[in-house]
Amino acid sequence: MAAVHSTDVADVAPELLRVLVQQTRETVSLGVLSGDEMVFVHRERGPQAVSVNAELGARRPLHATSVGKAYLSGLDTRERADLIRTLQLAPFTPQTLITTDDLERDIAKAQARGWTEEHGEFDIASACCGAPIFDHTGRVVAAISVAGLKDRVEPALDRLGPLVVATADAISRRLGHNPAPTYPT
């Protein structure tokens, strides 16, 4: 199923991801779920002299990356809890979240903020932000992230996060996602 979903996403996302690279000047990635990991199916490198590097097909853990946490944040509560329960929460750096409670708290903060963040949890020298992508049925099918050197990206997360969300929303709309409108109470 990941291959089927990634085909649609990979068809509609590149143009918007290129715009995101122009806006952020950082590396932008598109990932889909494969088993209990995210696999990069599209990558646009930013023009910065030093950037994060991962090849297409590279796998990343759900719990230690913004792209993985973005995917998790798009799942309904029960589906997310079921998936998290199956994960091996291995530490990659001292900052890696290695308990289900810490991971759930981080995802709740991300949902309130609108985007996920990763602060040296997979690679001590990098920071990232991410957002989920939804299909026409409202199911999460992929996630995107913006990644770069920690010293450069962390101070810019409040600017980068909304750009990632806007791009993920635009890709989702191209896939036919039409979120239910919210009305003030």
Describe the structure.
The chain is α+β, with helices and mostly antiparallel strands and 185 residues long. The chain has a single domain, classed as GAF domain (Beta-Lactamase), CATH 3.30.450. It has a six-stranded antiparallel sheet. A hairpin with a 5-residue loop joins strand 5 and strand 6. Helix 2 packs antiparallel against helix 7 and helix 3 packs across helix 5. The longest helix is centred in the C-terminal third of the chain and has 18 residues. It is globular and about 35 Å long. The N terminus is likely disordered.
Characteristics of this structure?
disordered N terminus, 7 helices, 185 residues, alpha+beta, six-stranded antiparallel beta sheet, Beta-Lactamase
What's the level 1 CATH class?
A: Alpha Beta
Give helix and strand order, one letter per element, not per position.
Answer: HHEEEHHHEEEHH
- The CATH superfamily appears as GAF domain
- Net shape: globular
Biggest sheet strand order reads 3-2-1-6-5-4
Task: Name the beta content range.
Answer: 15-25%
Specify the number of helices: 7
CATH topology: Beta-Lactamase
SS-derived structural category: alpha+beta
Low-confidence stretches: 1-6
Radius of gyration: 15 Å
Q: Helicity level, as a percent range?
A: 40-55%
Euclidean distance between termini CA atoms = 39 Å
Whole-number total of structural domains: 1
* Overall number of strands: 6
Shape-level CATH architecture: 2-Layer Sandwich
Average per-residue pLDDT, rounded, comes to 88
Biggest sheet details: 6 strands, antiparallel
